[in-house]
């Protein structure tokens, strides 16, 4: 049984078609990357998969459960990494995790135990008593991911989890996610960083204009090329750099005296 099965998905916003007859199957236990240019439909697709946005047509099943006819069973199995502005950032890191666990009906004592484990795993133990509003960007990403994992979901859906994250925090997040997949979990990650996707993911789908252009294992999609080059081949839009001769080692322009006074008046 696949972790996620998406069939003939369609979503419009007014006259704009964001997702156009998109079908995708994500194997259980995979680290699956969704890549595409801005406006490709990645975030819309993830929002539909997680039950946050209804489709106009098509269907989604998560671990055998229909997202729309069986929403509670589906959401129990999904962990969604919130954005920084969606966190209760006046809570401490520990309080946020315990609260997130209790929202998922986990008893307080068990939520506190899991929270401490997650703080240790993400190297946030020293910041447990610090308010999340005072966290760095990397720490905020880590506490957000921890809050998505506290109920032990079988599917993690992450939209740009490494954006604005320093290399140390990025490596820490990557290690936790790889361990999660080795334990049987499935990760879907949307990212613009092709090198990261190629290094971390087992599978990838390239999406553009609401369509899947290629999907499969990373090696299958790359088809003997570097994944970034393959992406550009499929998506297109790359053009030769325009020659700007005025950038080539010339002395800075120094206005003449009369010109300087006119510029001051302007």
Short synopsis of the structure:
By secondary structure, the protein is α/β, with parallel strands linked by helices. The chain is 37% helix and 23% strand.
How would you characterize this protein structure?
This protein has 266 residues and is α/β, with parallel strands linked by helices. It folds into 2 domains: 1-77 and 155-237, Rossmann fold (3-Layer(aba) Sandwich); 80-152, no CATH class. It is 37% helix and 23% strand. The protein is built from 10 helices and 10 strands. It has helices at residues 42-49, 71-76, 93-103, 108-121, 137-149, 167-182, 194-200, 218-222, 227-235, 257-265, and strands at residues 4-13, 16-26, 31-35, 57-62, 65-66, 78-80, 155-159, 186-190, 203-208, 211-217. The chain has a 6-stranded mixed sheet with strand order 6-7-8-3-9-10, with helices on both faces. A 4-stranded antiparallel sheet has the order 2-1-4-5. α3 (93-103) packs across α4 (108-121). It is globular. The chain starts with a strand and ends with a helix. The mean pLDDT is 90.
């Amino acid at each position: 049984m696949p972790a996620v099965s998406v069939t003939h998905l369609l979503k419009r916003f007014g006259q704009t078609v964001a997702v156009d007859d998109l079908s995708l199957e994500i194997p259980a236990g995979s680290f699956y990357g969704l890549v595409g240019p801005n406006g490709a439909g990645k975030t819309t697709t993830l929002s539909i998969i997680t039950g946050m946005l209804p489709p106009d047509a098509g269907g989604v099943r998560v671990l055998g459960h229909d997202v729309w006819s069986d929403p509670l069973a589906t959401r129990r199995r999904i962990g969604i990494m919130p954005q920084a502005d969606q966190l209760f950032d006046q809570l401490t890191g520990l309080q946020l995790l315990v609260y997130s666990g209790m929202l998922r009906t986990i008893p307080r004592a068990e939520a506190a135990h899991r929270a401490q484990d997650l703080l240790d795993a993400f190297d946030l133990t020293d910041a447990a008593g610090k308010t999340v509003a005072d966290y760095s960007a990397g720490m905020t990403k880590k506490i957000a991911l921890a809050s998505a994992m506290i109920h032990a979901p079988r599917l993690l859906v992450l939209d740009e989890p490494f954006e604005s994250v320093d290399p140390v925090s990025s490596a820490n997040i990557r290690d936790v996610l790889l361990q999660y997949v080795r334990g049987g979990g499935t990760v879907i990650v949307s990212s613009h960083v092709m090198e990261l996707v190629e290094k971390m993911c087992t599978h990838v789908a390239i999406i553009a204009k609401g369509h899947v252009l290629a999907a499969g294992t990373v090696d299958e999609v790359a088809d003997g090329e570097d994944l970034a080059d393959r992406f550009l081949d499929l998506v297109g839009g790359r053009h030769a750099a325009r020659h700007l001769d005025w950038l080539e080692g010339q002395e800075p322009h120094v206005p003449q005296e009369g010109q300087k006074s006119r510029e001051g008046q302007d």
